[in-house]
Amino acid sequence: MPAASLTPAAPAAPRPPATAPDPRARPASRPCGEADLIAQVLDGPEPAAEVMRWAESLARVPFWERRSLGAAGLVREHAVPPGAAARLAALWELAERWFPDARPEIASPRDAVLLFAGLAGTHSETVMVLLLDGRQRPIDVEVVAVGSTNVARLQPRDVLAPAMRRDASAIVVAHSHPAGDATPSRADRHLTMALREAAALMGVPLLDHIVVARRAWHSFAREEQWTDIPTWAADDRDSVY
């Protein structure tokens, strides 16, 4: 029988001391806001106060506008350092490529009418506004007035308020003629003129005002040959569903 080894067993390795939690660390349960995420991309998990200021400023800018700025615009208009601006511009370009926006460009009266198709079947006069982003893609369609009395009292601010709230870059207004005749009234023409002037002052151009009836529609931009917005194809001639 072999003799038992007299060599003492090696002592167990000491356990490393417990690491005290970093008081600056963000709690795992706290959701990150958009400004937090921008700052972390630029400066890691604990961004400096100056970086947070840039990030908070950028988080207030609509996404389409950030994309259109590019690195040079970020430096020029938001004082982001060139290295950080290049990183953000590359990140937003990747986001656009990974998750392309499938929304169609609304470039003519007929394009817009397809989004206002529900107006053709309304039984009460209804006004809606189509909100568009910087590439003339739809953000949303909102109802701003229902009923002849409310439509008669409609003010430009009632139409422009949703555009301001949703950071729209352009709008198209449409309203229904439940009686079935798409011919605009004198009140419709006065409203169109007031809307164009107010929208221009607010920097949110009115691309068109469309009257929608059950089987036809009327485009003010086409009839009056608005030429101040080159991206709107007002020569779309087919006005019958």
Summarize this structure as a short list of keywords or feature phrases:
alpha+beta, 40% helix, Cytidine Deaminase, domain 2, 241 residues, 5-stranded mixed beta sheet, 9 helices
CATH class of the largest domain: Alpha Beta
Number of helices: 9
How many separate domains make up the residues?
Answer: 2
User: Cα-atom Rg, whole angstroms?
Assistant: 29 Å
Helix content: 40-55%
Low-confidence stretches: none
**CATH topology name of the largest domain:** Cytidine Deaminase, domain 2
Q: Which sequence of SSEs, written as H and E, runs from N to C? A: HHHHHEEHHEHEEH
Percent strand: 5-15%
CATH architecture of the largest domain: 3-Layer(aba) Sandwich
Question: Strand sequence of the main sheet, in spatial order?
Answer: 2-1-3-4-5
Report the principal-axis shape. Answer: elongated
The average pLDDT value, as a whole number, equals 83
Structural class: alpha+beta
Q: N- to C-terminal separation?
A: 104 Å
Fold and architecture overview:
By secondary structure, the protein is of the alpha+beta class. It has 2 domains: 34-98; 109-223, Cytidine Deaminase, domain 2, CATH 3.40.140. The chain is built from 9 helices and 5 strands. It has helices at 34-43, 49-59, 63-78, 82-98, 109-115, 148-152, 156-165, 186-202, 220-223; strands at residues 126-132, 138-146, 170-176, 206-212, 217-219. A 5-stranded mixed beta sheet has the order 2-1-3-4-5, with helices on both faces. α7 runs parallel beside α8. It starts with 33 loop residues before the first helix and ends in an 18-residue tail after the last helix.
